[in-house]
């Protein structure tokens, strides 16, 4: 855990001690600090379970524990994807309780104050916003949000000032994201004559100790830390006993604590002050005033490790022994041991000098104990002092006394760190004196330029290396400093002069990077380092330092930065750069409205696949250049990959957003000339506003993408502003996807067959397999709907396998199907794009003992164009395996004619849209006739689908079409209905075509 004491950690550590004594188990607590990078493998071989509080342990420490088979639990943080069970206080429930309570008190316009750069605060705000949207017809308005830059008292005072300065403010109650924000807000409001809660109610979250003592007492929600710690401890015991890993996060509901700041007049018991609670014991058992407590803790702890026995006596701890170890990266050595009685050392192993970090602490004996471990960094890499205090858990435990002892240990760690850093500093000073003489020798032979500026004489001198670096013609040993200043690049000079002026008044070394002009006129990048030397009166008298030519490194760094933050093709910002810009704006300007626009080029994939990647890349560069010329200086453009562009724009409302977006759409339409070819782009744009439509970059991008998808559905070339209702189609899509997966597993998908007739309309030549789904939940689902869902969710592979299995099973039991010329089965782009599809299909048909020649595989032109190279390889493999191939919906694609020559097909199906219009105009008839003639001239069989009338049948027969299919001839039906309907009709012999 980060520390042992305080409002949050003190209650958790006290609860752990109480649970350890209750269950008679040993407890090791490590004070890891709050930098989230604690990786020392302390105690790993001692642990049966590990509980991490607030992400204080580094990922490598947690991973090591899981690899050793230790059950790991996290309170308030996620270590995904590691197998760590997570427990957390339910932030949503607390906000909802506060909001509902204020509503019950008559408040209708409730505001929110918080620092949205903090993850937990954003969760609380999202819960608040959702509650507002639910309770108020007009939904959340930005005037209800008071953004601050921290969770402190001062931030609360700023929010109060914002509330006071808001003209016509309608908020009568404010929910503050933390108690400190709330207390600061109350203080500032009262200073300005605002009565809380009469004029405005203020409530907080966290239930810190000081909330009870302010006037009026603060209404808040308690995070139920004791319950959270108990659940974590109990889960650890359960896992040790053999319980399985629980993936679902355990949420502990927060509890409303009603006091007076909300406007409540009745006397209500404090929900956090149960007489038996750990918090109650911590507050009242100690009996110390705050000043007395600080003075006592400070006066004892300042003596370092040697004071631990005094603290033990003062706070009545059952200390067995304590020790101070040093770890230097390789070995662990014992420095000191403290104990009250000799017999208490019986639990300390005699061979402690041989221990490793993983074995620390090593305690012998059967008595239950609690060990407190305080690792303190010595200021040098892999160098630590480690304090270990071992207490016996038998005998009576005083929560308040133990809490005071943990306060002492937290302060002790600071003094141990002080002593360690002083010792390290002394050792470094000795080393620096030894190095000083060596440095004097090195300076004259250094590759760096060494310089010295005498401020009293105003003369600058340097060594020969700097003369060569700048290719100086004047080799004088000393010059006027202005000569060097004049060589600084004009863009770098103001910052350089400001830095010099700043560091003249301090003793710290300085370092900067700038460009200097050589005598030949070229600029080089140099790293300038130095320090100011002061006289005994503290006046600066000299600057000394070095100069290194870093031109090559800087140019490499510039290239790396360009590659890391900018798109290699178009030169605009990439996803990483744009996301950082958005997050920076949210963090530093949380109240400033901006828009995220997502743009997608229409039909780009068709252009790319048809004309090649060179043309597609040229179009992307052309569009990017046009967009940059259209955008203003304050807007930024980024490419997220493919044909997606994202803009972060300084617009304040929907009108401005539409105006800018339409300018961008017009820019995309500027024609591009490429090899005697003119291409014109078209795009669709979706818009999401910060903070109305999202409080972080990912949410804004997602919602802008949803709006863009809606714009494409409207036909392209449109601008659509996001609203929350747009998520509904995606929810429907996900619901169908879920139910479709279950339907496939449970055999709900039915196979129907539609006959294909010969030209004479008297013989059935073949059948086409069609999927039908009657869902118990959704009813009859249109194939066009669930097939699209399957293709978009990768269920198409599973559905395709299911259909083939059902058809093969039908063929095995049906002489009717066995005697057909072929059975047509539709395949999708995803199936054709799978490298093993042809082999798997051939193997499956062979396993059923059926010939591949019985099956005709139909694919649309769109499927054939999805991945042309892989598709062609798959089709050739299928044809070689004996399958017949058919091109479906012919005539509707972008490059239909070229496909006829490339694909190894035997059959072409004319799309039903041409058949439907065949009688409307003579030109339509001529067109169909031409299609039939062209396809047959290439040696392919022609099938007309969608035949709906007798007159269409006669016309197609006269045009010489080979086969016909449609509702007029026969509707799709199940195999049983099919066989009953055509029981007296023999299928055409297989040899006939």
From TrEMBL:
<feature type="domain" description="PAC">
    <location>
        <begin position="510"/>
        <end position="562"/>
    </location>
</feature>
<dbReference type="InterPro" id="IPR029787">
    <property type="entry name" value="Nucleotide_cyclase"/>
</dbReference>
<protein>
    <submittedName>
        <fullName>Histidine kinase</fullName>
    </submittedName>
</protein>
<dbReference type="InterPro" id="IPR035965">
    <property type="entry name" value="PAS-like_dom_sf"/>
</dbReference>
<dbReference type="InterPro" id="IPR028082">
    <property type="entry name" value="Peripla_BP_I"/>
</dbReference>
<dbReference type="GO" id="GO:0003677">
    <property type="term" value="F:DNA binding"/>
</dbReference>
<dbReference type="InterPro" id="IPR043128">
    <property type="entry name" value="Rev_trsase/Diguanyl_cyclase"/>
</dbReference>
<keyword id="KW-0808">Transferase</keyword>
<dbReference type="InterPro" id="IPR000700">
    <property type="entry name" value="PAS-assoc_C"/>
</dbReference>
<keyword id="KW-0238">DNA-binding</keyword>
<feature type="domain" description="GGDEF">
    <location>
        <begin position="592"/>
        <end position="724"/>
    </location>
</feature>
<keyword id="KW-0418">Kinase</keyword>
<dbReference type="InterPro" id="IPR001633">
    <property type="entry name" value="EAL_dom"/>
</dbReference>
<keyword id="KW-0805">Transcription regulation</keyword>
<dbReference type="GO" id="GO:0016301">
    <property type="term" value="F:kinase activity"/>
</dbReference>
<dbReference type="InterPro" id="IPR001610">
    <property type="entry name" value="PAC"/>
</dbReference>
<dbReference type="InterPro" id="IPR046335">
    <property type="entry name" value="LacI/GalR-like_sensor"/>
</dbReference>
<dbReference type="InterPro" id="IPR000160">
    <property type="entry name" value="GGDEF_dom"/>
</dbReference>
<dbReference type="Pfam" id="PF00563">
    <property type="entry name" value="EAL"/>
</dbReference>
<keyword id="KW-0804">Transcription</keyword>
<dbReference type="InterPro" id="IPR013655">
    <property type="entry name" value="PAS_fold_3"/>
</dbReference>
<feature type="domain" description="EAL">
    <location>
        <begin position="733"/>
        <end position="986"/>
    </location>
</feature>
<dbReference type="Pfam" id="PF08447">
    <property type="entry name" value="PAS_3"/>
</dbReference>
<dbReference type="InterPro" id="IPR000014">
    <property type="entry name" value="PAS"/>
</dbReference>
<dbReference type="InterPro" id="IPR052155">
    <property type="entry name" value="Biofilm_reg_signaling"/>
</dbReference>
<dbReference type="InterPro" id="IPR035919">
    <property type="entry name" value="EAL_sf"/>
</dbReference>
<dbReference type="Pfam" id="PF00990">
    <property type="entry name" value="GGDEF"/>
</dbReference>
<dbReference type="Pfam" id="PF13377">
    <property type="entry name" value="Peripla_BP_3"/>
</dbReference>
